Amino acid sequence: MASFTILISVGRENPVGVSVPPSQEESRVQGSKDHKEPAAEPEASELFHSASAKEIRHSPSTEALLAEDEWKVLVLTGSTGTQASVTLCVYGDAGVTGPVRLSKDSPGQLFRPRQEDEFQVEVRNVGEIYKIRIGHHGPRGRPAWSLQRVTMQHMKSKKILDFATNVWLSQIQAGGDLVCELPVIKEGQPIFPVRYHVDVYTGQLRQAETEADVSLCLYGQRGDSGLRLLHKSNMPVKFQRGQIDRFEVEAVSLGKLQKVLLRCEARDESQYWYCEKVVVREPGTESESVFTCERWIPFMSQGIIYSEIELYHQGED
């Protein structure tokens, strides 16, 4: 078992979004849609969007971590390993630490089949830990990882936190996601993640469709889901004019939803997208949260082009 020390800075995960008044204008994107180019591949690290993240590999000169903040993290890989980078966020009732990249100088030695890897991380000012988010930034050639178990142990008190795992992180298997949220198992019983149903409405305006990658982050009273690529739709072709695409976003319960962040990775105006609204439903309830958009993404405001926007809750039916 290999052991590594990682220092990370602390801050709340907060993808930058800009709220602006709705707009029905479409003239600025007409014409350019006639010459479409393939959508750019999103940077994998953006799925764990945070300005506070950094990575420090283990070295003999690394300062000792404070005992009160030092945790051991054990990651057990199942039958299929990954050569991609693995990233971890730790959520508590007072804040979030991360994302932190679990790596070393020779990444090929990590996350091999049926291997348990050990890391030491510093987790500050998050209060009582209730969930983690872990994922890998899989290359197209080997996008699958079997994650068997994650355990955290406080180095001073020896308190152990177990997380319900045994999941596939793959865009071609299971739920099609490279990221998962895992709750702390309390008294032997995990609080299972919620699978939110997310309906994304593309508008009826001419050339409203897009081939660009679209990502979404849900925010609620108990944190956020992290930025998730909307990869697996119920429709054969995503984000077509006048179409409703349904996605599933799995996360530890966020409580009452407050807002949604949408990001469209358009390379040029031919890939701009007109989103009408986003409707989120939590299984087992009859309520739905409606987030009205009614504008093109990306959009320009005060001479600056923004590729993401925050949408606020419009009430429940």
From TrEMBL:
CDD domains named among the record's database cross-references: PLAT_repeat
**Listed PANTHER family:** OXYGEN-REGULATED PROTEIN 1 (PTHR45901:SF7), PROTEIN CBG12474 (PTHR45901)
- What is this protein's name? Lipoxygenase homology domain-containing protein 1-like
Which SUPFAM superfamilies does the entry link to?
Answer: Lipase/lipooxygenase domain (PLAT/LH2 domain)
From which domain of life does this come? Eukaryota
Concerning Pfam families, the annotation shows: PLAT
Task: Give the organism's phylogenetic lineage.
Answer: Eukaryota, Metazoa, Chordata, Craniata, Vertebrata
Which positions fall inside the PLAT domain? 69-183, 194-311
Q: Which region ranges are annotated with the description Disordered?
A: 14-45
Show the ranges annotated as biased composition (Basic and acidic residues): 25-39
